[in-house]
Amino acid sequence: MSTPEVVLEFRNVNTHYGPVHVLKDVNISIGAGQMVCLLGGNASGKTTTLKTILGMVVPTTGEVVLDGQVISGLPTAEIVGRGISMVPENRRLFKRMTVRENLEIGAYLRPDANLEADYEHIFSMFPRVKERLNQKAGTLSGGEQQMVAVGRALMAHPKVLLMDEPSMGLAPLLVAQNFEIIRQINEAGTTVFVVEQNANMALSIADHGYVLQTGQIVLSDTADALLANPQMREAYLGEVGGP
Predict the structure, then answer these.
(1) Residue 136 in 3-state DSSP?
(2) 16, 77, 135, 229: which is deepest, by most CB within 10 A?
(3) String of b and e for 125-136 (b: at least 16 CB within 10 Å)?
């Protein structure tokens, strides 16, 4: 099987918040069409990794590269315009706006957008969203808000879809449904980078995984190999001993 062309890459990235060294020589490579997950506990540096991709944090040294072009240091709006979209932690919808208005925001950088075709694509994945189209986003359930957040991100037609803790705050059944949708989005051709604490769920649908610990990549392998790794199983999958 051929190796996919790299679409998003961290090259020896170091970041700081003042004197605090957060990311330490981080190297991540995401191939076109792949599903890659970044795993780690609280304060491991996962959120800083996403902020660095989006230009909200600028590396002290090293580069973030999209389609062969360095994007670190560019304004966030320009990075989004080049094809990166995110489903943020806790959805972060505009709660006083309708579902339709939240979806429209996802396409704001596409002046020639065919919104009706985009809506139909979103509705095919999330029929419930169509039913709630004129409802205020803040009145939706957590699961429904997650559907809208994913739909909003897809309205941008991203090259790379970032997902920040997609399982957070959802009931177990909704977590499983959510990851099934993520898998379908990836199988339809969108490159996906998932930042997640639920290692079992993320690795079950990913091609490759990285484990971040206090700002350093401590494990990197195919998802299947990580699931079978005794160190991974004990430290991150809640198991003791080998497979």
Answers:
(1) strand
(2) 229
(3) bbeebeebeeeb
- Where residue 241 falls among pLDDT bands split at 50, 70, 90? very low
174 and 78 fall within a common domain: yes
Q: Is residue 88 part of a domain?
A: no
> Is the whole model's pTM more than 0.70, yes or no?
yes
Residue the block writes with tokens 């979209």: 85
CATH number of the structural domain spanning residue 42: 3.40.50.300
Which of 125, 157, 189 is at the close of a domain?
Answer: 157
**Do 72 and 108 belong to one domain?**
no
pLDDT, residue 238, reads 52
Q: Which helix (H) or strand (E) element contains residue 22?
A: strand 20-31
Phi, psi of 153 (to 5 degrees): -65, -40
Q: 210 in a domain, yes or no?
A: yes
DSSP state of 23: E
Q: What torsion do the CA atoms of 92, 136, 155, 151 make, to the nearest 10 degrees?
A: 70
Residue 239 pLDDT exceeds 60: no
Q: What's the CA gap between 178 and 202, in Å, rounded?
A: 11
Number of domains observed in the structure of the chain: 2
Summarize pLDDT for 10-35 with one digit per residue, the tens: 999 999 999 999 999 999 999 999 99
Mean pLDDT of 216-243: 76
